[in-house]
Design brief:
single chain, 336 residues, alpha+beta, Beta-Lactamase, Alpha-Beta Plaits, Arc Repressor Mutant, subunit A, 3 domains, five-stranded mixed beta sheet, four-stranded antiparallel beta sheet, elongated
């Protein structure tokens, strides 16, 4: 019998024992056969419960079972066996398995196990690198390649999940280091597995219990990034704030804004070269020199292109306000 979560275990117990049972550790509520929906109700039940039974885990930790009615010796023994089977499974997990467990949204129980505090501690900051492969069946080989590549780096852990792979970074790294890692991953995976992966790097966070929410947010922002910047495969979550804001607006409102902006027919007359020039200019923070290098063109050629865009649209991208307006216009067009 494999019990994946404590909630699942207590649902099974509730089928054979209909009265309420509560599991505590260090006087903290963990789970009840009634679930966790109403914490006030849980407190009320705890006041009424008169029967307390100690349980010692395989790791020697003390738990308490609170019961509304008295348990006979056989029932208590069976209950203790079920709970200890679960706790033994939890205590045997290594770091990667613990992180997989937390990523599913069931990390609460892990944090209540003091035996894991030497494996996972809340640092001042963590960061995630989320890697999305074209096909789910590619992920096993991808994880093996990543683990081999970073086996000497003790500050990170490669963690496969059902939807992709994330790397947890337990030490602070600079933006250039993170982008360098992402580029190394893409190049290596492409060379060894002939796969073209997408990568997004999270903002810093300081609590591992936030892991499920952060992973979900990264997946959503990556989808936005792939929609609005088709030429890129590496993204920084912190640099997609405007894009995320635009996509948080309802589609109907975006369509209305789009219609208002694109009454200016000049937007529709721009060719692919103009769009590439604009995207590169915005990406390089309106810097003429850096944009020229990125496009492999002369600075004068860039100036000519910007003048032509200005004649078509009435916007001078060298002006900050016009550049912001143009970026919003482009995002709206791509989001519809």
């Amino acid at each position: 019998m494999i019990i994946k979560t404590l909630e699942e275990l207590f649902k099974k117990i509730h089928k054979v024992y209909p009265d309420q049972l509560v599991l505590l550790k260090d006087n903290q509520f963990i789970i009840s056969t009634y679930g966790e929906a109403n914490k006030n109700q849980q407190r009320h039940h705890r006041m009424e419960e008169k029967f307390i039974y100690p349980i010692k885990s395989p790791a020697g930790e003390d738990y308490q079972v609170l019961a509304a009615t008295e348990l006979n010796k056989e029932t208590l023994g069976f209950l203790e066996l079920l709970i200890n089977l679960y706790l033994e499974e939890i205590h045997s997990l290594d770091k990667k398995q613990i992180l997989q467990y937390i990523a599913t949204g069931h990390g609460k129980e892990v944090f209540l196990k003091s035996s894991h505090m030497n494996i996972l501690k809340d640092q001042k900051s963590y960061q995630l690198i989320w890697i999305e492969a074209p096909l789910l069946e590619d992920e096993k080989e991808l994880a093996e390649v990543l683990e081999e590549c970073f086996k000497e780096d003790e500050g990170l852990t490669v963690v496969p999940t059902e939807e992709g792979i994330f790397i947890l970074l337990e030490d602070k790294r600079q933006k250039e280091q993170l982008l360098g890692m992402a580029k190394t991953i893409r190049d290596m995976v492409n060379a060894e597995l002939y796969l073209d992966v997408y990568i997004i790097i999270s903002k810093e966070f300081n609590q591992l219990k936030k892991l499920p929410k952060i992973l979900q947010g990264l997946k959503e922002v990556l989808l936005i990034g792939k929609t609005v910047t088709v030429r890129s495969h590496i993204y920084l979550e912190d640099e997609l704030k405007l894009e995320k804001t635009i996509f948080s607006i309802s589609k109907k409102e975006r369509e209305g804004l789009y219609a208002d902006i694109y009454e200016n027919k000049g937007f529709e007359e721009m060719d692919e070269e103009a769009h590439l020039t604009i995207e590169t200019f915005l990406k390089n923070n309106l810097n003429l020199g850096e944009t020229s290098k990125a496009l492999f063109i002369h600075r004068n050629t860039l100036a000519y292109r910007l003048d032509r865009i200005s004649r078509l649209t009435g916007l001078d991208l060298r002006k900050f306000e016009d550049a912001i307006f143009f970026k919003i216009a482009m995002l709206l067009k791509k989001s519809i």
